[in-house]
Amino acid sequence: MTQSATRTFPLTIHAHWRDAAASKGFDILKRIRDRYHLLLRCRTCGATHVSKLFVLMNNRPECPHCIEARWRGHAKAAGLQWAGRDPENRHYGLYIADCGHRLRRQLELVKRAAAGICDVRCETCHTRKEQAEAEAQGWELIGSDPEEDPGYRHYLHPSCGHVQRIARVNMQTGRFGCGKCGDDWPAAPSHLYAMQFKLPNGAQLVKLGFSRNPDSRLRHQLLKHRSVEAQILKTVPMETGQLALQIEKRLHAKLKSTFPDSIASPVLYAGSLNVRSEIYFAEVTREIVRMLDEIATDSAA
């Protein structure tokens, strides 16, 4: 810094300037640089900064140190470390995530994240997570959706070379098929299953059904919230979805005929399960498992 930039000016500091500064949370220490600038001390944090006389008298100066302290606090509350202002855009800050990656985010976004309104995620780690999700289903992530739908991604099926738009939630659950080499559900392998539930209202229920992926059906479709205790009791593989549907209908007809009082009313489970029928009270659980055991034995013979 040059000598002229640091010299002080032995000029009068008028009383009404001091009063204006005090009313806005500052003390005037001295005039600095030239006759238009003042050195102010913040009464909140004690730090100093240079302010124009015009700004002090006609506006409400903000202490840059207090502002940065708030930004640091927002970063910490959002699970980030403050790394400084973005030199190219005053509305952005630089942060370090828990994973160690450096992020550039809007200051207002991080403030909202600190308040719990939204989340701040690392794009690098999130992309790796999406890649792992695709690999678990035998696909590769290409990138964002070419139609710009935020719920979709662009994927490659390496086994046949097909490229396809798929909803990310479907990639996570496995509830989709390849448009080139995939089978429709009637021809694709499937499973009969028995699942049991204990609802928050205390009701204990059992469901008989079929699905290509029973675990995905349970975890990502049937349960409305995590307070429902649920587990798969038994699954029996079927050669096709069509065969599974036929056997399921036959078993339901037998249960409804033999145990009509065991059919649970949808009112009982509507708030907990995404299903409208074919739910029974737990008293028929043993019979459902017995029927599935019998089908499994016959299939193996």
Please describe the topology of this protein:
Elements: H1 3-6, H2 15-23, E1 26-31, E2 37-42, E3 48-52, H3 53-58, H4 64-77, E4 81-85, E5 92-96, E6 102-106, H5 107-114, H6 123-136, E7 140-144, E8 152-157, E9 162-167, H7 168-173, E10 190-198, E11 204-211, H8 214-222, E12 229-238, H9 241-258, H10 266-269, E13 279-281, H11 285-300
Antiparallel strand pairs: 1-2, 2-3, 4-5, 5-6, 7-8, 8-9, 10-11, 10-12, 11-13
Helix pairs in contact: 4-5
Note the main attributes of this structure:
4 domains, disordered N terminus, GIY-YIG nuclease family protein, alpha+beta, 36% helix, four-stranded antiparallel β-sheet
Could you please describe the fold and organization of this structure?
This protein has helices at about 5, 15-25, 55-60, 65-75, 105-115, 125-135, 170-175, 215-220, 240-260, 265-270, 285-300, and strands at about 25-30, 35-40, 50, 80-85, 90-95, 100-105, 140-145, 150-155, 160-165, 190-200, 205-210, 230-240, 280. It has about 300 residues and is an alpha+beta fold. It folds into 4 domains: about 5-60, no CATH class; about 65-120, no CATH class; about 125-175, no CATH class; about 190-300. The strands form 4 sheets. The chain has a 4-stranded antiparallel sheet. A 3-stranded antiparallel sheet has the order 1-2-3. Helix 4 packs across helix 5. It is elongated and about 105 Å long. It starts with a helix and ends with a helix. Residues about 1-5 have low confidence and may be disordered.
